[in-house]
Design a protein that fits this description.
In chain A, strands 1-2 form a two-stranded antiparallel sheet. Helix content of chain A is 73%, strand content 1%. Classes of the chains: A mainly alpha (315), B mainly alpha (282).
Chain lengths: 315, 282
């Protein structure tokens, strides 16, 4: 609609009325285009963020009026709720194991498949496939079966003589988290694609020069490939770290946080407190602590960036 | 051994190794696919065998019946409707916003842009409680609106992706259109929009995946089974109260993955290109 009227008006001569001069003013145009973002930001982020900050100082069941209790929620979290502390620990273990493993796999596979014809492209597709569907409930359903009592993995271990009885990896508190971590590592596809794009951008001349100088493949990897990829490793690290703290669906469906809270990831616990026992004030306080944790870790990554990330051309 | 045979052996070893790990990678998917054709008895007695003893197609019919009279026709229809509306909203609004950031010079641009970047890093689930309370006060709980409406105000990841793409288009295009009498508005509609199609498609693919697989949102907001999406319906197969018909669960899981896999295979070119052209080097 706007397009047609604006064209006509331009033909008639620009800026012949004050209204038009406003509508075509650079500032107005800019804000017109990003207005949706600003509205969404205020309504769906700023307001909820502030209201959850307020709620975190209250006792609130979702109905009625919140009751102000000061810092009690925060105090309760760190001094009176061992389940919370356990979920914090489980989440850190989960994140600090799966993120490095996923990135290492992603990089290795990306290097393996960086060049080649159709067959290699087909391999790449197959390795990426789990990541496309891995977040779905369908995969969580199958995962329960594969790692459950007498499931494929269990049978395989029995046949190999590593185990002698039926065992559920999911129902045991020592192995349950491991199954969730393996599921997460299995989906290394999207960092792999990002690495592939990065590998293609490394100039071939660098490798040629290194070959002339007599460098072997190992040296080339450490001296050329890895340093050139540091911006991408950084990008992947930030991304994966944040999504690691947000993990919910798989742990919720496969183990429901159990057994004995062994897979009680942060968001699973947050969900349980807020939406099954309706302690929304407490849940809000947990959400705020999570924001702070993620912000601190991201800030640490950004702060150490100068030490290990090499940007080719600054600016 | 000559250099040539050495190279050949290495090549063969590479392919053997890679195709074996490839099978390992997609084994769970194959297990689900073949499991959907096993009888209930077969599933429990021969969990290790990949292939069914006899092919049984009843799981699909049984699974489709759904729960308490609500069939998967309803669940699929709901998921499709929610996904289409929401993906359209996310991508259209993100394109408009990305153009504002990419091509308009206005006061406060860098301020809002940095807010957008922070939003990209912002863990969405930490806002879920106040959002729930807010949507509840709108009377939106147990409707699709909380799952759809926020997307119409832009999605930071897609804004950034499309923004990166727009920045790579030559400015001369805009300038010549401007000389020909186009305003910023018509430059967007006539010049930029047709050119950013690859970025729009990439965004659409990601948006479709995420919306189709979304579990957290539907679980919190939908209470009436008639409004459930597939992901919630599949979860019902795992409920302790439900009689676990694993064959049916596999069958419906397979069906739920088909749209995602079809989109993946038909558009994977855009996925890779989208990531490499618009990716990280901002």
């Amino acid at each position: 609609m706007k397009n047609k009227s604006s064209e006509k008006s331009i033909k008639n001569k620009r800026k012949n009325s004050s209204l038009q001069s406003i509508v075509y003013n650079e500032n107005f145009v800019g804000y017109a285009f990003i207005s949706l973002f600003i509205i969404g930001f205020l309504v769906f982020t700023v307001y909820p963020l502030l209201s959850s900050l307020y709620l975190s100082f209250t006792k609130y069941s979702g109905l009625g009026t919140p009751e102000w209790i000061g810092l009690l929620n925060y105090k309760r979290m760190f001094t009176m709720d061992p389940r919370y502390l356990k979920s914090l620990k489980v989440t850190f273990v989960y994140v600090f194991i799966y993120v490095p493993l996923r990135l290492i796999f992603a990089l290795l596979v990306a290097m393996m498949f960086k060049s080649g014809g159709r067959i290699v492209a087909a391999y790449r597709t197959m390795y990426y496939l789990p990541s496309v569907i891995g977040g779905s409930v369908a995969v969580a359903v199958i995962w329960r079966q594969l790692w459950g009592y007498g499931g494929v993995i269990n049978r395989l271990f029995i046949n190999l003589g590593l185990m002698d009885e039926e065992f559920s990896f999911i129902a045991s508190k020592d192995t349950a988290l491991l199954t969730i971590i393996i599921l997460a590592v299995w989906q290394f596809g999207s960092p792999m694609l990002v690495f592939l794009a990065g590998l293609k951008d490394i100039p071939a001349s660098l490798y040629e020069a290194a070959t002339v100088d007599g460098a072997n493949n190992w040296q080339k990897f450490w001296k050329i490939t890895l340093p050139s990829l540091t911006p991408i490793i950084f990008f992947n690290l930030v991304n994966q770290l944040i999504s690691g703290f947000m993990a919910f669906t798989q742990a919720y469906i496969i183990t429901r946080g159990g057994p004995n809270d062994a897979t009680m990831l942060y968001v699973v616990y947050l969900y349980e407190k807020s939406f099954t026992t309706f302690q929304m004030g407490y849940g809000s306080a947990m959400a705020w602590v999570l924001i702070v944790i993620v912000a601190i870790l991201t800030a640490i990554l950004f702060a150490t960036q100068g030490k290990w990330v090499y940007y080719e051309n600054k600016g | 051994m000559t250099y040539k045979t050495k190279k050949l052996i290495r090549k063969i070893l590479f392919h053997v190794f890679v195709s074996l790990t490839c099978v390992l990678m997609i084994y769970p998917i194959l297990y689900m696919l073949f499991g959907s054709f096993k009888t209930q008895q077969d599933i429990f007695q021969n969990p290790t065998s990949l292939f069914p003893r006899e092919w049984n197609f009843n799981n699909y019919a049984n699974g489709w019946k759904g729960f308490g009279g609500t069939t998967f026709t309803t669940f699929f229809r709901n998921s499709i409707a929610i996904t289409i509306i929401s993906v359209f909203g996310q991508v259209a609004s993100s394109a408009i916003i990305a153009y504002g950031f990419g091509r308009c010079r206005f006061k406060g641009r860098s301020f809002w842009f940095s807010i957008m970047i922070v939003m990209m890093l912002m863990p969405a689930q930490v806002l879920i409680i106040p959002q729930y309370i807010m949507f509840n006060s709108f009377g939106w709980v147990n409707t699709w609106l909380p799952l759809i409406v926020p997307g119409f105000f832009g999605y930071p990841f897609f804004i950034f992706l499309i923004y990166q793409f727009i920045r790579r288009l030559p400015l001369e295009l805009d300038e010549s259109a401007y000389i020909d009498g186009c305003s910023k508005y018509s430059i967007f509609g006539r010049i930029i929009l047709p050119l950013i199609k690859p970025a729009l498609i990439t965004s659409m693919i990601f948006a479709t995946y995420w919306k189709w697989d979304d579990f957290f949102g539907p679980m919190i907001y939908l209470t009436d089974i008639k409004k459930y999406t597939i992901s919630i319906a599949l979860k019902m197969f795992t409920d302790p109260a439900a009689q676990s018909d694993w064959g049916a669960a596999y069958a419906m899981s397979v069906l739920s993955l088909i749209p995602v896999i079809v989109i993946f295979f038909s558009f994977q070119k855009y996925l890779v290109e989208g990531i490499s052209t618009t990716g990280i080097k901002g």
